[in-house]
Amino acid sequence: MQFRHLFTSLMLGIFFLAALTLAPAAADTATPLCPCPRNYDPVCAANLITYANRCEYDCVRRDVERRGRSLNLLRSGPC
Fold first, then answer.
1. What's the predicted TM-score (pTM) here?
2. Closest alpha carbon to 66 in 23, 32, 24
3. Do 23 and 42 fall into the same domain?
4. pLDDT value at 26 more than 70
5. Average pLDDT over residues 62-76
6. Total domain count for the chain?
7. Confidence category of residue 11, pLDDT binned at 50, 70, 90
8. Which residue of 5, 12, 16, 65 is 20 to 30 Å from 37, comparing CA positions?
């Protein structure tokens, strides 16, 4: 019984150490939370990616602008 407790504690410690080690790298590449409706009304952006709707495009555009770049909307509809 004591071995099981020690093994469980060791595994949890390894898991949390791995999570703390990997968390900063994942946070650098993640886009900020941007709640959008799930309706499909596609738009085509200048990067030739079709976004599901205007809200999703706007979220990506704001993130790109925070990095000092721009992303224009080409047209309504898929690319």
1. 0.59
2. 32
3. no
4. no
5. 96
6. 2
7. low
8. 65
23-31 long-range CB contacts below 8 Å, 24 or more apart? 31/59, 31/60, 31/63
* Domain region containing 2: 1-30
Of 64 and 6, more confident:
64
Helices vs. strands in the chain: H and E counts, helices first: 2, 3
Residue 31 has a CB neighbour count (10 Å cut-off) of 11
Give residue 2's pLDDT.
72
Query: What is the distance, to the nearest Å, from the Cα of residue 27 to the centroid of all Cα atoms in its chain?
Result: 9
Rounded CA Rg of the chain: 21
Q: Cα separation of 76 and 79, whole Å?
A: 9
Q: Of 29, 30, 54, nearest to 40 (Cα)?
A: 54
